[in-house]
UniProtKB/TrEMBL annotation:
Protein name, entry field: Peptidase M20 dimerisation domain-containing protein
GO MF assignments: dipeptidase activity
The Peptidase M20 dimerisation domain, residue ranges: 6-98
InterPro entries: Bact_exopeptidase_dim_dom, Peptidase_M20/M20A_hydrolases, Peptidase_M20_dimer
SUPFAM superfamilies: Bacterial exopeptidase dimerisation domain (SSF55031), Zn-dependent exopeptidases (SSF53187)
Length: 230
């Protein structure tokens, strides 16, 4: 899964009457729109698995005043933590350029970092064995990076980790975060699959507790994986 970071930005300008003396104003809405357009230009150079999302949180609700304040919320995603840091830097440049072009001041805050997920082969292989006993055929690992994000990535930088996914029956047009998918996830059939996954995860965790060789191998692989990232 992708690494992800949240970014909040606030533009501060100066009010003026839009009809009487607009030249006296410093337009915070122009700064926000300019930064958004800067990112739109940047998108052509984004890698296929990188994502940038935006929501305008505070904008003017009247048309005859040059606004002195706007606020936006951004999310940035990239397959690796290193790539995320590069993309965040580019986004900050786009935001700061909007402020520079309009004469506004800008405040940028970063929070809620989700790292990418560093999967542990030992855990994945053991989980594959356990869930296979329930006649479920799953991949040991999926090499294509999924463009969603989760705090399990942060866990994987601290300890050997696996992150499993499982299928449920849903309409062909359904997708996570859609109401039809939420309805499908609430069925008895979906809950039954979740129980099988939970049991398989629990058995994998138990093996880590009681099998010293497995424990040592998982930690050795984890240290090698983290060292490669650094």
């Amino acid at each position: 899964m992708n690494a992800r970071k949240n970014i909040h930005c606030e533009f501060t300008g100066r009010n003026a009457h839009a009809g009487g003396n607009p030249w006296e104003g410093i337009n915070a809405l122009d700064a926000l729109v300019s930064s958004y357009n800067n990112v739109a230009v940047l998108r052509q150079q984004l890698l296929p698995d990188q994502r940038v999302h935006c929501a305008f949180l505070d904008t003017p609700n009247v048309a005859n005043v040059i606004p002195d304040y706007t606020k936006a919320f951004w999310q940035v995603r990239s397959p690796t933590l290193k790539g995320l840091n590069v993309l965040v830097s580019k986004l900050r440049n786009c935001i700061e350029a909007g402020a520079l072009a309009t004469g506004c001041q800008v405040k940028v805050d970063e929070d809620e970092l989700y790292t990418d997920v560093r999967l542990n082969d030992t855990l994945c292989e053991r989980y594959h064995i356990h869930i296979g006993r329930y006649s479920r055929n799953v991949l040991k690992r999926h090499d294509k990076v999924l463009t969603g994000s989760s705090d399990i990535g942060n866990v994987s930088y601290e300890t050997p980790t696996l992150h499993t996914m499982f299928a449920i029956t849903a309409p062909t047009t359904s997708f996570p975060h859609h109401p039809t998918f939420a309805a499908a996830a609430g069925t008895d059939e979906a809950h039954a699959e979740a129980l099988i996954v939970g049991k398989s995860l629990a058995l994998t965790g138990w093996d880590m507790i009681v099998e010293n060789d497995m424990y040592d191998l998982a930690w050795r692989q984890w240290k090698e994986e983290i060292a490669r990232e650094e």
